[in-house]
């Protein structure tokens, strides 16, 4: 494994995470998240962030809102998105991180989506139920970046991911010549030895990449000014969220919720969501396709909610941006998002100086 670059931990969150009683832990996390946010924002904004739509695809409605939504439609539609983040690190270097660069042509090999394709046929699943917006490669080209500009790639978690095309392995040529994978140690260890209840969401062999391309993280990581990866376990054991500060707000991105309103369910117009949250006393509604660590997922969503704060454009909503965004679609009546916030975009993405020197 590669040694960890000079990243800093975020102040005060680690202590709260060590608490074992779930209710106490949540209380400690609430305070810690606000303290960490204050330190994060005080340091100033990120250099640049751009959001790129990748693909719209079906996802079971019962999972999307943990059973809270009342539509008879079996699927919601979600749009996978990638963030291109540029930050100045401790050494004063501008670095480029791709958050959720999904190689979605390969992701359909995960057993869940392979079975869907078998049930509906390739034409229906690939053409009717899916819409391709752009690939990682095409988005980078339109931002003026080459594969050598990418220093790091990271994912909120490794469901449906195949890393081999990006980093090499299994005889595949690496598309990114320099990039390293930033991944939580817990996620990396889990994916090497999956439990039967986890297997359905993972691409077989998808994490078989050269060891020297992998940087293991333990907890929250402050990448550089205005950019951090928050440890938000629950959906998977090594789940992470991207946090990006601009000059006026903090964006938080993950797949813990499928829509911004999942963080303020009393404001949801999706039939059933508000009433169910009220009945259950939930302040957040989980994306619930895994039930591995639901208490942790709930608490992680509260951390995300407090760290993000409110949107600068829609103050009644939390500035949370799903990496898989619930998307209005004719196949999913009554399952449209109540609000879609403007996606994280700030500053100007530029070629990475260290890539030019290395060339
Ligand atoms: Zn997932």
From TrEMBL:
Species of provenance: Pyxidicoccus fallax
Name the UniProt record assigns to this protein: Uncharacterized protein
Domain of life: Bacteria
Protein family: Belongs to the metallo-beta-lactamase superfamily.
The UniProt record lists the keyword Cell inner membrane: no
Entry GO MF terms: hydrolase activity; metal ion binding
Keywords: Hydrolase, Metal-binding, Zinc
Cofactor or coenzyme needed: Zn(2+)
PANTHER family from the UniProt entry: METALLO-HYDROLASE RV2300C-RELATED (PTHR42978:SF7), QUORUM-QUENCHING LACTONASE YTNP-RELATED-RELATED (PTHR42978)
Upper classification of the organism: Bacteria, Pseudomonadati, Myxococcota, Myxococcia, Myxococcales
